[in-house]
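Task: fold both queries, return tokens.
Query 1:
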Amino acid sequence: MTNLEVVNALLTAINFDRFTEIEAAHRADATFTSFRGPTLRDSVAIADWHRTFLRDYADCNYTELEYLEEPNTVAVRATIEAKAYDWRAFTQRVIEVFRVEGAEVAERRLYGMLRDVEFDKAVTAAMTNALGFKGGSASATRTAVAGFYEALLKGNRETAATFLHDKPVVVDGVYGTAAGAENIFDFLAAIPMPAFGRLRVTSIVAGEHDALVELAIDPNRPRFADWVRLVDGKIIAIEGYAMLRELGLNPYENYAKDRHSRQVILPI
């Protein structure tokens, strides 16, 4: 059983509310960090977490799946389609990172955007360009992405700009969007950070023209994940995801916790 098969079997179990299969897919001492929290450290707790999650995300369905894979690691970019507490449909873009050992998931990290994030024209154009691009190499992608973030985190805008496409965009699931190199740098610099510590890249998973970049201040507390898209070796789009609770955001804000029960209304 390949790592992709293990991950897809778990996502299928989630889509169909199969809690026994969800528990069995994880190693007994598996660790799961999610944007909703808290951090879980065993398969039973993870299955119980999904009982609550799938109550709040009724008719959950992972769609628009994109994969990146390296030995023992699978990164999935997806759009969750679900129904909220009042049974109204919504979407939420997420990134999941899985560490697979044998045929079991040993570690998961689930990052999210806020719900129902829409792309503007500049972002849509860049995404269309990126999704239509074929080619590239994993090694070139890793080199470009690592170089960009190294320069960015050092505050070297001039060097960072050399890794960007002519019309780059950033869409952040919490803070908004920006287009153009200088606007992107100003936008990223304005994202609030804790008073102490500095952001570091904790992992990169590279594909032919996409890469996952995880960033944190404390490696034990994942904070951000970017899905980076390249065209002709240059970064054209960065999608920003986050551990919402780590940012001090309430994932339940504006959404009641108690689901309205569906019931038949009979004539009097």
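Query 1 returned. Query 2:
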Amino acid sequence: MPTASNVRTERFLPAVPEHVWDSIREEFTLPPAADLEAHFQVMGDTEAMQQAVRVFIGEGTFCPGFQLNGGLLHEPVLRLFEGALDLKVPHNVFSAWMASPLPGAARGGARPVAQLDNLPLLRDKLRVFADRSRQVEKRR
């Protein structure tokens, strides 16, 4: 049943298909934000959650595991996420983009999560993605 917060989220965030969340959950984990916050508190890094990518699924808030490297936030993901926020790409959409094949990649091709060593390329691809998404939104 839709709730006020659910309807608001669906209205302002493009819908990400459930199978994308299932895929991220299976490949990278998708723990509740509270679990990741507790993890960082144990590590003594109470400010890490301010930088973490969070996604909003139903009534829950989760953190895609692809942003972690050795239990710490992975710097290339943080840089891309900052760029996504500057481009006004919503958290959920950014997370889905990270785990999806890039346009023009070979069949079953490269995803941003697999190319984190090439930030300039990914920044360009993210910019193109954001521009294309805005064009689609304008047509609606």
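Both queries returned. Flag for query 2: The helical segments are 4-12, 18-28, 33-43, 75-86, 91-98, 119-139.
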